[in-house]
Amino acid sequence: MPRQIMTVAEMTAADRAAAEAGTPTIVLMERAGRAAAEVIRERYARCPTVVWCGPGDNGGDGYVIARHLRRRGWPVRVEALAPPASPAAQWAAGRWKGETGPLVSEPGSAALYVDCLFGAGLSRPLDGEADRLARIMPGAARIVAVDVPSGLVGDTGRPLGERSLKAQLTVTFHRRKPAHVLAAGRAACGEVVVADIGLEEMGQGRLFENDPGLWAERFPWPAADAHKHARGRMMAVSGEAWNTGAARLAARGALRIGAGVVTVLSPPGALAVNASHLEAVMLAPFESEFDLQTRAEKADAVVIGPAAGVGEATMRHVFALARNGAALVVDADALTSFADDPAALFSALDRDDVLTPHPGEFERIFPGLLAASPERITAAREAARRAGAVVLLKGSDTVVAAPDGRAAVGLNGAPWLATAGAGDVLAGFIAGLIAQGMESFEAACAAAWIHAEAGAVHGPGLIAEDLPGLAPSVLRKLWEARER
Ligand SMILES: NC(=O)C1=CN([C@@H]2O[C@H](COP(=O)(O)OP(=O)(O)OC[C@H]3O[C@@H](n4cnc5c(N)ncnc54)[C@H](OP(=O)(O)O)[C@@H]3O)[C@@H](O)[C@H]2O)[C@@H](O)CC1
Ligand SMILES: [K+]
Q1: What are the tens digits of pLDDT across the range 124-142?
Q2: b/e string for 147-167 if b means 16 or more Cβ within 10 A?
Q3: Looking at the predicted complex, does its ipTM rise above 0.95?
Q4: Which residues fall inside 5 Å of ion ligand 2, going by CB?
Q5: Taking a C-beta distance cutoff of 8 angstroms, is the pair 318, 304 a contact?
Q6: Closest ligand (CA of 29)
Q7: Domains (ranges, CATH) in the chain?
Q8: CA of 189 to the centre of ligand 1 (A)
Q9: Does residue 245 line the site of ligand 1, with CB under 6 A?
Q10: How confident is the model at residue 484, as a pLDDT?
Q11: Which residues hold AMP (predicted)?
């Protein structure tokens, strides 16, 4: 099952729908507070605990948590920023029979703090006592946030004002929000646990966690009677003689991820060096853009960009390939080549083509878009709309967006992947999956997930050359999960 990521507005709508269907907010609040208290008891030994409660329903959750911890014998005190203002919070505060006082916490005044000041209803920057807390408790150690660390905007993962609280553990409800998946928010949230509070699935989501639930059912496993040409033909365009390794990394990636026939298309001057490094991957020369177009006629997917060289020749090569039916994965130099005329690139692209920029390349072809967007999901979606193609924006929170509005965020990003050539392998994985018939958005999602898993499997010391060879162990896990 795909796991949706819900915006704050979608979550509020789900709350309202539940109320209309007969489950009032206080019931959801009781489930939320009880679930959060359980997570806290699983993670921490019983200890003197302070629950910081705000005036809204986030504070209401806090009173429920305090009650459940106290029932289990925890020494708990509530520190209230303001009296409960919402009806549900008033109900929860009324059922709390323990000690309540003003917000006076200092570092070390308790052994554990539970942050229930603000969640989805944050409407202005932290000030007064809440801001004091964020200033004097800059670290996350032994702070548990409920829904989000207070001061953080659920839809962006950034503080609304200057600062927010930070947490070691964040317990949220029903579904992750963007703040729980985007890198900036993840740093403030610490570990994120999603507790079920019995809300119904709502409508058709457009934003998902990128994990196998999103695409595994449509993974292109070979048919029992498969032959190599039926498993997809992928090609990668090589640079000149001193710039050939990147295309070979892409080619090897495509082969490992299952493409049946993989070819490096090479300028004449680079044939010898390519030939001396290729075995199962085939090699074919091209002399001109027309030649390239002809050679690529049989391809299902082509990677162009890794070490292709920045300039007019690469632009012409992209146009030549775009005249073919093959899906294009446009990466690295092929993106930068269009820095002065991104519209020319976009007009050549189809909906099944994929752009794979890192943030620097993204800025070159979508100038100012990242800075003007509240977060990376919005930026990638707008980029996909403008380009009329799938856009994969790299990062520890890689975002994949399709021109139809679907988007997915990766949660398994591994720091080991920040190494030269890793992106070339990713481009090859994407093209290798598209060549096997996977739809481009899902192919980009699957490739990014497998790439990150492979990085995590290897860990320290990873170099890009390792990545294709790590794909089989990840594929095996997917294969075995399918058989179950
Ligand atoms: N949706 C669901 O299904 C479920 C949701 N649940 C929980 O509800 C939470 C959302 O609750 P919520 O909407 O009441 O918002 P919340 O964050 O408590 O704050 C609103 C209050 O704070 C005030 N205020 C805002 N900013 C301020 C500031 N800087 N400084 C001072 N005051 C400020 C604001 O004032 P106002 O803007 O109205 O003037 C208002 O009084 C959600 O995060 C989750 O924990 C669960 O119970 C389970 C089911
Ligand atoms: K909070």
Answers
A1: 999 999 999 999 997 889 9
A2: bbbbbbbbbbbbbbeebbbbb
A3: yes
A4: 115, 119, 145-146, 150
A5: yes
A6: 1
A7: 8-205 (3.40.50.10260), 212-483 (3.40.1190.20)
A8: 18
A9: no
A10: 63
A11: 394-398, 423
